[in-house]
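Bumping my old thread because nobody answered last time. Still need a sequence for this structure:
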C-alpha cells in the first residue's frame, strides 16, 4: 500500500515531525515475555493495515505514506520496580523523533515479574487517542490467545478523503469570506515569553484517578444536573486554575476540547486506526469564587455543543492561534473486556499529549469502572508543586460537588 501524503496529515507531518506525538499506557497483569509481545505485534500488523505505515520522500521531494518495508516496531524494555516507573520512562522517551523511514509507532515495555506497563507512543498526524486505546486492547487480547485467527480490518484512507461533500462545500464557501483560526496554546514565539531552555522543555507527567464509587457518583450527578462528564471535569479544572491563578489572575478561563470525528465521516471507521479528531474547540467560562458549579458545567456543555458544528470541526487551520489554559481530551467510557487468558488489562492511562508550545495537556478515560487522569506539561511551564496542588484541589472540588 502506498499513497501520497496530503491534507491535514501532510500539514501535521511537515509542521512538527518530532513534537506531535501522543502516548497511552496499559497496565497489564500477567507474565510478559519479549517474544510473546513481538508475536502479538505481528498479529496487530495483520489486523490493522495502518499500523506498519512509514513515511518516505521520493526524488521529487514528495512525501508518501507506505506499508512497504520491515514492519518491526521499536520496543524499549525498562525494568519495573514500582508502579510509577512508567511515568519516568514516558518522560524520557516522549519527545524522541520518529525516523522518516521508520514506523510511526513505538513501544516501551516497563517489565515486571507479574505486572507490567506497555506504553505506546504514536505520531499524532496519523493516529488519535482512541486508536492507541484500541491498539493496546488488541495487544492484550493476542497476548492472552496467541493462536486466535486474525480478521484484517479494511484499509481506511486519510481522513481528508472521508469528509462529507456537503461539509467540504460549506467550508469552501466559508473560507471565501473569512479565514479560519487555529485553536492553540500560547507559542514560545510569543513576544511575552522567552523560549524554553532544553531543561525547561523536559516533559513531566502526573497521574491520578477517581475511585470506582466516586466515578459512578460523578456520572450519576451529571445526569441529574443535565450536563456531561466532560463539562464537569472541564469546569472543575477551570475553577481550580482560577483559584490558584495559574498563568494569570483572571477568573475567565479557557479550555480546548478535541472532538472525535469518527461518527461524522462518510465511512464507518469503527475501531480503525487514524487521526479522527479535530484540533480542539475552545470554550471559556467565568469562574469567580462562589459561582454555582453545575450552572457553569451546563454553560460549558451548551457552548461546546453550539461551537462543534461540522463546518468548524472539519475546517483546516490557519490564521492566528488563540491561547487557552489547558487542553482536555476525554476518551469516555471504554467498554473493553478486562481478562484474556492469563492476562488482565487492569488500567489505561492517558492519552498524554503536549506540543512544543506552552501547553498543559490533560487526558481522561474510564475503564473497569474507574476514571483515570493524566496531565502532561513541560517543566519550564509549571513547578511540580503547583501541579500537585492543582490535582489535590480539583479532586477535593469534585468530591464536594458529587456528594451534595
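Sorry it took so long. Here it is:
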Amino acid at each position: 500500500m502506498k499513497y501520497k501524503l496530503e491534507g491535514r496529515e501532510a500539514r501535521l507531518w511537515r509542521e512538527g515531525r518530532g513534537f506531535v506525538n501522543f502516548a497511552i499506557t496499559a497496565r497489564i497483569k500477567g507474565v510478559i515475555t519479549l517474544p510473546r509481545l513481538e508475536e502479538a505485534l505481528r498479529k496487530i500488523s495483520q489486523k490493522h493495515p495502518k499500523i506498519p505505515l512509514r513515511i518516505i520522500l521520493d526524488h521529487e521531494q514528495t512525501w508518501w505514506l507506505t506499508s512497504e518495508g520491515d514492519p518491526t516496531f521499536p520496543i524499549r524494555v525498562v525494568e519495573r520496580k514500582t508502579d510509577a516507573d512508567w511515568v519516568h520512562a514516558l518522560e524520557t522517551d516522549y519527545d524522541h523523533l520518529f525516523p522518516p523511514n521508520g514506523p510511526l509507532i513505538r513501544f516501551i515495555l516497563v517489565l515486571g515479574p507479574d505486572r507490567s506497563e506497555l506504553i505506546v507512543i504514536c505520531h499524532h498526524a496519523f493516529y488519535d487517542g482512541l486508536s492507541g486505546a484500541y491498539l493496546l486492547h488488541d495487544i492484550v487480547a493476542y497476548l492472552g490467545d496467541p493462536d486466535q485467527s486474525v480478521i484484517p480490518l479494511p484499509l481506511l484512507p486519510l481522513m481528508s478523503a472521508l469528509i462529507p461533500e456537503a461539509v467540504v462545500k460549506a467550508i469552501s464557501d466559508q473560507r471565501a469570506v473569512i479565514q479560519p483560526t487555529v485553536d492553540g496554546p500560547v507559542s514560545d514565539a510569543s513576544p511575552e515569553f522567552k523560549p524554553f531552555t532544553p531543561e525547561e522543555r523536559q516533559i513531566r507527567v502526573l497521574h491520578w484517578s477517581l475511585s470506582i464509587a466516586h466515578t459512578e457518583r460523578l456520572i450519576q450527578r451529571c445526569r441529574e444536573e443535565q450536563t456531561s462528564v466532560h463539562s464537569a471535569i472541564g469546569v472543575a479544572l477551570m475553577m481550580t486554575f482560577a483559584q490558584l491563578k495559574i498563568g494569570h489572575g483572571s477568573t475567565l478561563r479557557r479550555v480546548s476540547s478535541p472532538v472525535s470525528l469518527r461518527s461524522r465521516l462518510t465511512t464507518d471507521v469503527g475501531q480503525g486506526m487514524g487521526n479522527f479528531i479535530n484540533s480542539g474547540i475552545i470554550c471559556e467560562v467565568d469562574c469567580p469564587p462562589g459561582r454555582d458549579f453545575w450552572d457553569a458545567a451546563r454553560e460549558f456543555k451548551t457552548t461546546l455543543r453550539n461551537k462543534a458544528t461540522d463546518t468548524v470541526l472539519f475546517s483546516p487551520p490557519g490564521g492566528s492561534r488563540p491561547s487557552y489554559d489547558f487542553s482536555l481530551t476525554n476518551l469516555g467510557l471504554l467498554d473493553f473486556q478486562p481478562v484474556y487468558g492469563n492476562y488482565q488489562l487492569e488500567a489505561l492511562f492517558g492519552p498524554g499529549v503536549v506540543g512544543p508550545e506552552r501547553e498543559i495537556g490533560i487526558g481522561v478515560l474510564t475503564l473497569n469502572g474507574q476514571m483515570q487522569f493524566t496531565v502532561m506539561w513541560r517543566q519550564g511551564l509549571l513547578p511540580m508543586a503547583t501541579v500537585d496542588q492543582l490535582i489535590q484541589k480539583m479532586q477535593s472540588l469534585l468530591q464536594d460537588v458529587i456528594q451534595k
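The chain is about 30% helix and 25% strand. Let me know if any region looks off to you.
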